[in-house]
Amino acid sequence: MTKKPVRHIMGISGGKDSAALAIYMRDKVPAMEYFFADTGAELPETLEFIDIMEDYLGKKIKRLNQHRGFEHYLKLHNNLLPTAKSRWCTLNLKLLPFEKLVKNDEAITYVAIRADEPQREGYLSKKPNIKACYPFKEAGLVKDDILQILKESGVGLPQYYQWRSRSGCYFCFFQRKEEWVGLSENHPDLFEKARYYEQYHKEKGHRYTWSPGESLDDLIARASEIKQKSASRITQKKAKNLMEAVLMADEDDPEDQACLICHL
Predict the structure, then answer these.
(1) Tens of pLDDT along 19-67?
(2) d(CA 165, CA 25)
(3) What is the homologous superfamily of the domain 7-159 according to CATH?
(4) How many whole angstroms separate alpha carbon 237 and alpha carbon 138?
(5) 135-166: per-residue pLDDT in tens?
(6) Given phi > 0 = left and psi -120 to 50 = alpha, else beta, which region is 172?
(7) Tell me, what's the pLDDT at 243?
(8) Do the bridges between strand 107-110 and strand 7-11 make them parallel or antiparallel, or are there none, so unpaired?
(9) For the sheet containing 107-110, what is the strand order?
C-alpha cells in the first residue's frame, strides 16, 4: 500500500502574521493547503481580507464550519457565553475543525509566530500525526519584516486595523475598550448583537460581560472618555492614528495576549 504524502497545511486567520506567512511560503511549498476557520461571527473586513488572500495565493482557501457556527455551539452550551477562561469558542470553532480537516494524515502545520515573539508557541496539536513548523522563527523574521512582506506583495493590512488591533470574532472578549467603541461606530448592527447576547446572558442569571468590569451599555455611555484616553495613548506612542499605534505596540502588553490561533 502506497504511503500518503505528508500534507502541508496553513491556517489563515485574517490577521497580519498568518497573511504574511502565506505570502512568504507560497512559492516555497506549492502543495500548501490553506484554510480559514469561519466562526460565523467574523467582521466583514476579515472576510474581505480572506477573499483578497485567496486571489493573491491563486488557490482556494477552504472555509471550515460552514454549517455549524457560533450560534450552534452557543445553544449547546446552554447560552453560556465564552470567556477568556472558558474558551469553548476556540475549541469548537478553531481547534477541533482543524484536527477534523487533518484527520489521521501525517501533516505539517505552519505557524506564523515571529522571531521577536519567543514567549509564544501558538496552537500545538496533541495528535502525533501533526507537527508544527515556525518559518518566521527559523528565518529570524520580526514584525518589521512581516509588514514589509505585506507591503511588497501589494496585499497590505486588513482594513479593521483602522479601528481594531486584532482579527477574531466581532465580540472577542480580548478587545480593548476603545475597540468596542470602534465596533459601535463602524458596525452598529454587530455591536447591538453583542449587546443582545450580553443582556440575554444577564436575564438567565449570569454575570459575565464581554468587556471586563462593565457591561456594553455602561461602556458605551462613557465612549467619549474612552476615546480621549485612546487618543492620549496614540499621542504617547508618537503615532498619527490607531493603525500606526497598533503596529508600534509592545505585544508583551497583557491586553494583547489574545488567543493566538484566532488572531495571528
Answers:
(1) 999 999 999 999 999 999 999 999 999 999 999 999 999 999 999 998 8
(2) 24
(3) HUPs (3.40.50.620)
(4) 30
(5) 999 999 999 999 999 999 999 999 999 999 88
(6) beta
(7) 79
(8) parallel
(9) 61-64, 33-37, 7-11, 107-110, 130-133
Mean pLDDT for 119-131 is 77
Can you tell me the distance from the alpha carbon of 206 to that of 223, in angstroms, rounded to the nearest whole number?
25
- Pair 43, 175: CB distance under 8 Å: no
From the list 129, 144, 122, the residue with the least C-alpha distance to 262 is: 122
Per-residue confidence band for 256, with pLDDT thresholds at 50, 70 and 90: very low
Dist. CA 183–CA 122, nearest whole Å:
26
Q: Sketch the domain layout of the chain as residue ranges.
A: 7-159, 177-256
Determine which of 51-65, 82-96, 229-243 has the lowest per-residue pLDDT on average. 229-243
- List Cα–Cα distances, 150 to 76, 154, 155, 194, in angstroms: 39, 6, 6, 31
CB 264 within 8 A of CB 19: no
C-alpha angle 161/64/172, rounded to 5°?
A: 40
pLDDT digits (tens, 9 = 90+) for 208-222: 999 989 999 999 999
- Which residues, including other chains, have CB under 8 Å from residue 256's CB and lie 6 or more apart? 165, 166, 249, 250
